[in-house]
Amino acid sequence: MGHIENILPPDRGGVVLHWFTGTPAEARRAIALGCYFSINGEMPRSPKHRQLVESLPLDRLLTETDGPFVEQDGKPLRPRDVGQTVAELAKVQSCSVMTMEDAILQNLRRLVSA
């Protein structure tokens, strides 16, 4: 996080932490810095990472596919599988799939307009 704090001016763009698996303290620090977190379908399968994803604010979540480098159930993830990730995120965040879809789109819009 030191590089983000030292190099990126606060008024210049946003930061996406890809497949973030840091500590809860690091997550809180990243949230305070305005970072977003991209989540793939494999992350919530690990109890530790699921708990971390559960603690992240809805307004900082994005999806990723990592296909074909990440496998789920022995098959490479593809962009078309992102709906499964959204559904899993909705479960982890205790919200509806529609709420999660809307949040992810709003987050992406906010990120690219920064």
Compact description:
The protein is of the alpha/beta class and 114 residues long. The protein is built from 5 helices and 5 strands. The protein has helices at 2-7, 24-32, 47-55, 82-92, 97-112; strands spanning 16-18, 36-39, 61-63, 71-72, 75-76.
From the alpha-carbon coordinates, what is the Rg to the nearest angstrom? 14 Å
N-to-C SSE series?
A: HEHEHEEEHH
Question: How helix-rich are the residues, as a percent range?
Answer: 40-55%
Strands side by side in the biggest sheet: 1-2-3
Q: Strand pairing plus helix content: what structural class?
A: alpha/beta
Mean pLDDT score: 87
Q: Please give the largest β-sheet.
A: 3 strands, parallel
Number of strands: 5
What's the end-to-end separation, in Å?
A: 19 Å
CATH superfamily: Metal-dependent hydrolases
Task: Provide the low-confidence segments as ranges.
Answer: none
CATH C-level class is Alpha Beta
Oligomer: single chain
Report strand %.
5-15%
**Principal-axis shape:** globular
Give the number of domains. Answer: 1
- Quote the CATH topology: TIM Barrel
